[in-house]
Amino acid sequence: MASSAGVDLEEVPSVDLMTELLRRMKCATKPDKRLILIGPPGSGKGTQSPIIKDEFCLCHLATGDMLRAAVAAKTPLGVKAKEAMDKGELVSDDLVVGIIDEAMKKTSCQKGFILDGFPRTVVQAQKLDEMLERQGTKIDKVLNFAIDDAILEERITGRWIHPSTGRTYHTKFAPPRVPGIDDVTGEPLIQRKDDTAAVLKSRLEAFHRQTEPVIDYYSKKGVVAQLHAEKPPAEVTAEVQKTLSSKG
């Protein structure tokens, strides 16, 4: 109930009320954080961001979701974004930064935010910084989910899925009892189109070309924290906690 600031508390069941009060007390002690998560597909950003969000009482700003929400809500920026999309054009950086600006005003973003999927280019990073500067804030930390391409390939191309339930397996880390077959139903497993070596290779090339300069840009500002994203998720979580709890 992150955005329940305006809720009439008499309407809320007492168990939920206690949970919400405890959450607000905990959140009141947390320092504000404005974070960017950067990493290639499969590096674990999606696993870590909900944990960071809950621990530090932040809102999660995924630019794709925000664009869709702005379009659905027909906000002035959403209408402009839809016009661009309908023409098959990319939504301009200024529009995306404007949508982030709007989203940051929500109650759930009071303690700060996690940005995921943006900025992808140095120009976007500069526009984001200019917008934050106008508000008197800045990015506190950029978490770089650093991982070797070869490890990613093993992680991603080994994933197999049972289509009707979404049950996932991994040929090395969590194999089915019979190769290519779901343990429960005995039905064949499939591999997602995005999980093939060829698709991964082109996505990684795009990531390195566009996004590595963004890491350099923020490194010069001294706000990048390198994570060892090849480690097991619990170890990465511990590393994130340590990075974000340290001062500076």
- CATH superfamily (homologous) name: P-loop containing nucleotide triphosphate hydrolases
Proportion of beta-strand residues: 5-15%
Number of strands: 7
Q: Sheet with the most strands?
A: 5 strands, parallel
Which characteristics define this entry?
7 strands, 248 residues, Rossmann fold, AMP kinase activity, alpha/beta, 48% helix, 13% strand, two-stranded antiparallel sheet, ATP binding, 5-stranded parallel β-sheet, kinase
Describe this structure as you would to a colleague:
This protein is of the alpha/beta class and 248 residues long. The chain has a single domain (32-245), classed as 3-Layer(aba) Sandwich (Rossmann fold), CATH 3.40.50.300. Helices cover 48% and strands 13% of the residues. The chain contains nine helices and seven strands; from the N terminus they run H-E-H-E-H-H-H-E-H-E-H-E-E-H-E-H. It has helices spanning 14-28, 45-56, 63-73, 76-86, 93-103, 122-134, 149-157, 197-220, 233-245; strands at 33-38, 59-62, 112-116, 141-146, 159-161, 168-170, 224-228. It has a five-stranded parallel β-sheet, with helices on both faces. Strands 5-6 form a two-stranded antiparallel ribbon. Strand 5 and strand 6 (168-170) form a beta hairpin. Helix 2 crosses helix 9 (233-245), helix 3 packs across helix 5 and helix 4 packs antiparallel against helix 5. It starts with 13 loop residues before the first helix and ends with a helix. The model has no long low-confidence stretch (mean pLDDT 88).
